[in-house]
Design a protein that fits this description.
Layout (H helix, E strand, L loop, with lengths): L1 E4 L5 H13 L3 E7 L2 E7 L7 H4 L5 E5 L19 E2 L5 E2 L5 E5 L6 H14 L3 E3 L17 H14 L2 E5 L6 H7 L2 E4 L7 H8 L5 E4 L6 H13 L5 E5 L17 H8 L4 E3 L1 H5 L5 H10 L4 E5 L17 H17 L14 H7 L1
Parallel strand pairs: 7-8, 7-14, 8-9, 9-10, 10-11, 11-12, 12-13, 13-14
Antiparallel strand pairs: 1-3, 1-4, 2-3, 5-6
Helix pairs in contact: 3-4, 3-11, 6-7, 10-11, 11-12
The protein binds phosphoenolpyruvate and manganese (II) ion.
Phosphoenolpyruvate binds next to loops.
Length: about 350
């Protein structure tokens, strides 16, 4: 169970509650979150006594938990969390947020070109890997800090926020210096030292689901970050490994409404890694919004056939623009908004394609 202390609770009251919990056979652990003191009580059996805890001075509520995760749970926080990135950009609110860009930052010219075009089409966040966790040690591993600098420069030019992956705890400080959101990739969802380190800093985290992770394991990984004190976590379903081999992964669309019911954290969908096929990306994007996703993470490349990685699943700039346009009616039908595209200011790619 979790005990939520009221704002005015004194140290003495907190100590008294902790003692009472210990006497009941529980282990207690203090969590400071959003200006509140929570006491996490685990291991005890005296569930009847838990109602008496509510009578102790300073206790606001006692939340009995059915799940192994706590802070990420809707049982502890009923209202949906909104991650605020500044400049009016939020994830988890009414607006469906699109993050778009190349799999990897390859060079200045391609990155600035993509950034400008995806911003015109309505994306709010630029994606691009500078540290790439590749299956083969011989594949392109990313431009590292040079790539981070290019992302920061693209942000300056376009006003887009930046999301990029961090793969080791040692790089967290460096990546958070340049990025607005730190991405934990599927391969690192179980990297607990990395999750702990991310919990100890303030930058929002985009936590991808591991390709063989259950929803409970994914939420437990998010719990590591919240337990460290960082509540700015965005979940991202990116497909799981199944017996099907016609797609790179299988998009677990049911994860979206399920996670939305289990957790208050915003949830995004990555239709690019889910499918591995650019032809499937539009349909999966529409399905994601219809299922309640708070946003999309889409790979875009000006010449996908020449991409250093993940070209098969990358949309051309033109196809990305068309997709963005088609998503607006889906968002509206679901009571959401997506960046309005006023006809008078259609970006070049729309003028070419749609006129
Ligand atoms: C990526 O976003 O480029 C990436 C490597 O994704 P994932 O961790 O989901 O494979
Ligand atoms: Mn990729």
């Amino acid at each position: 169970m979790i005990l939520v202390m009221n704002q005015e609770a004194t140290e003495k009251e907190i100590e008294k509650v902790k003692k009472q919990i210990t006497d009941m056979g529980y282990h207690s652990h203090i969590i400071k979150s959003a200006g509140k003191i929570l006491i996490d009580a685990t291991g005890g059996k005296n569930h009847e006594g838990s109602t008496n805890l509510l009578l102790l001075p300073g206790v606001e509520k006692v939340v009995p938990l059915k799940t192994p995760y706590k802070l990420v749970s809707r049982e502890v926080k009923k209202e949906k969390s909104i991650v605020d990135l500044g400049n009016g950009i939020t994830i988890g609110g009414e607006e469906v947020i699109v993050m778009a860009g190349p799999c990897a930052v390859e060079n200045e010219e391609m990155l600035f070109n993509i950034a400008e075009k995806v911003a015109e089409a309505g994306a709010k966040i630029l994606r691009g890997g500078a540290f790439k966790p590749r299956t083969s040690p011989y594949s392109f591993q990313g431009l590292e800090e040079e790539g981070l600098k290019l992302l920061a420069e693209a942000r300056k030019r376009t006003g887009l926020k930046v999301v990029t992956e961090v793969i080791t705890p040692q790089d967290v400080e460096l990546v958070s210096f340049y990025a607005d959101i730190l991405q934990v990739g599927a391969r690192n969802m179980h990297n607990y030292p990395l999750l702990r380190k991310l919990g100890k800093q303030k930058q929002p985290v985009l936590l991808k689901r591991g390709f063989s992770a259950t929803i409970e394991e994914w939420l437990m990984s998010a719990e590591y970050i919240l337990a460290g004190g960082n509540f700015n976590v965005i979940l991202c379903e990116r497909g799981i490994r199944t017996f099907e081999h016609y797609t790179r992964n299988t998009l677990d669309i049911s994860a979206v409404p399920l996670v939305n019911s289990l957790s208050h954290l915003p949830v995004m969908v990555d239709p690019s890694h889910s499918s591995g096929d650019s032809k499937l990306v539009p349909a999966l994007s529409r399905a994601a919004i219809a299922s309640g996703a708070d946003g999309l993470l889409i790979e875009v490349h000006p010449e996908p056939q020449k991409a250093y990685c993940d070209g098969d699943q990358s949309l051309t700039i033109k196809d990305f623009c068309l997709l963005m346009k088609s998503l607006q009616s889906i968002a509206a039908a679901c009571g959401r908004t997506l960046q309005e595209q006023a006809n008078s200011s259609l970006p070049d790619c729309f003028v070419h394609v749609c006129s």
